[in-house]
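Wait, can you check?
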Amino acid sequence: MAHIFVLDDVLDAAVLTQRILSKKGHQVAIFTEEQEALQYARINQVDLAILDINLKKTNGIAVLEELRRADPTIRVIMLTGYPTIETARQALHLGATDYCVKPIDKSELEQKVSAALAH
């Protein structure tokens, strides 16, 4: 299946996402630190990144920009508990495959990941 990484400032949220997607057969790495996630993406072939918008040191939009420079083909799903039109516009303009509002339930997450990977 796919090689996915999840970046969320809340470890429990990342672990829950990992459990859901691992049960679908995906290889899922989780991170709470932006630089660790970016370093991982630079040295591993990643099919999909799931990024929270609100992070510890920066935001998911900045991470998305950096990912695009490192690998323009990586698919990205943005997650946020605090949606705004501006962040949605920025994320989609930078090439995010989807922009989702937390909390995202299991079936919606599975559907969004499947659609992003098929894109």
Q: What stands out?
A: The chain has a mean pLDDT of 96.
